[in-house]
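Appendix B. Raw example, untouched.
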Amino acid sequence: MPGVVSDHGIHHVPLLARVHPQDRILYQTERYHDDDFSYEVPVERDGEYVLNLKFSEVYFRSSHQKVFDIKINNIPVIVGLDIFNKVGYGTAHDEFCSF
């Protein structure tokens, strides 16, 4: 399930903090869902990889409103991620997951 596409951040957070202007669009669009959703990323061969996930809270304006886990191959790699709690509203935040 790929979630719902939203460009809320484009309209409400035009000057995103901590990001180069040409990269703002990466943080101003989002996908969300009221339930679990996932992506499939095909990997052609075994090896060591690092997944760079780009986040910004562009909707909620307080902690504990959007808290989620990230799993790779059904193994939790980040648990209880709360973007607002980490960096606040409208601020770029990257998470790196090795697998």
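End of appendix B.
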